[in-house]
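Thread title: Can someone regenerate the structure for this chain?

I was given the following input by a collaborator and told the matching structure tokens would be attached. They weren't. Posting the sequence so someone can regenerate them.
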Amino acid sequence: MSKRSASAGLGSLATGAVTAVALAVQTGLAAVVGVIIARELGRTAETDGFFASYGVFIVLGLAATAMRVTVLPPLARARDDRRLSVETVAYAGALALVAVPIVLVGALAAEPFAALLTGFGPEEARDAAASTLPWLLVAALGQFAAGLFASAFAALDDYTTPAVGYVTGSVVGLVLILLRIDENGVIAVAWGMALNAVIATLVPALALARRARREQMPGTAVRPRTGGTRTRLRELLSGAALPFALQAVYVICLPIAALGGVGDVTSFGYAYLVGAAVVAVTASSLGLVTSVPLSRAGVDGRRVAAHVDASSWLALLAIGATAGVFAVAGSTILQAVLGGAYATDVGEEIGWLVVALALWMVVSVGVSVTFPVVFVAGRASSLPLAALAVLGLHLPLAVAGQAIAGLWGLVAALAVSTAVALAWMLHLLDALRVALAELMIAAATVAGMVTAAYAVPAILLDGIPAAAVGTLAFAAVVVVIRPPGLRSSWAYLRELA
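Best answer:
Regenerated them for you:
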């Protein structure tokens, strides 16, 4: 084993915890922003417009997380070969070639893009989307840069420095939003998110520069070799294709959701944010921190199946608890948190949409922990084709789903499209049958425990008391039963280093 920094030796659980805490704080502060929007602006055409442009941020932001997974194995190998600086600069140049044109096009063509994103809806929605889109593009592309520097630190076995950047950026961005939202409305939210991304980028960038100066690294060490930037650009575009498609399916859903009337995009957006937050804080964090150890250990079909199963259990427990809470108290929670505009029928609808998204969350967990392994195993060449297949399948599914069952149909379309991507990746890794069977068994086990824990409180109690008692009962059931898969997962993650 090569030398490691101070954070080395923590193991997957500890480093995963550091990354998860950073993601949790970032996600929690994003949730606070969502609460501010709901309480200040309600559920209107303006909020529909914001969530339409915010969907673009989600797509690019989560693709940035996937990019971290794409570059982690080569950066880890580059660190061992003493080429980390060269590789980081080459990837940064490749990102700049993509980021600058996207921001320029987004700023110059904000109005037509806004009309498309809002399904050519009310003028108020289009105006809100057009005004926030350029800033949200800056915020999203800043996450790419922050993710690259975070990956460089991960190759150095340092997960704390980028975590500090993410948390600091989130806090400062939130302060700006609180100071300006009364006067400027939703545009203040976009400003805060852009500031967040700038700080999250600058903190690790400055730390890397300071480290290079301390180690007296020569200037030639950051000079990429000929063709390096173009090669890295191809790698990034190839690696980001499938994650981009998996988030683009959500954006495809937004103008289709608008067909249901004013407020439907906002409701769908809040439900999706809850589900995406659960997946990001749990499975995505483990997917990120285990890819470097896996790149050193190597993988085969059996190890892939074991890895997917073990890395999914903790996330599935979080999904189960989330579904249970929103099933018994979704309306009460949403009304208390988001305000009167989300009372009664609206809050109940969003709560049950979160429950319905549980299937999509389970499949997304599988995607999150499988995607890094595809790159570790060197089998990512067909992922762009998988991305095209997912996008081609999703559009008719979403249209048909909305026509048949409204927002519920869109939720079903998300789950099916994501499942296709998961099956594709597992097939590439020669682990489709075993890994999928184990994931289904784990999900069914958790679903059974959730049903047993929350059913009686839902009958005897209402709202928050039912959720609290159900959650305590769920924790007790997990402790008493101690499913074999969960015990194996805990042991696996502790040993992976």
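The longest helix spans residues 301-338.
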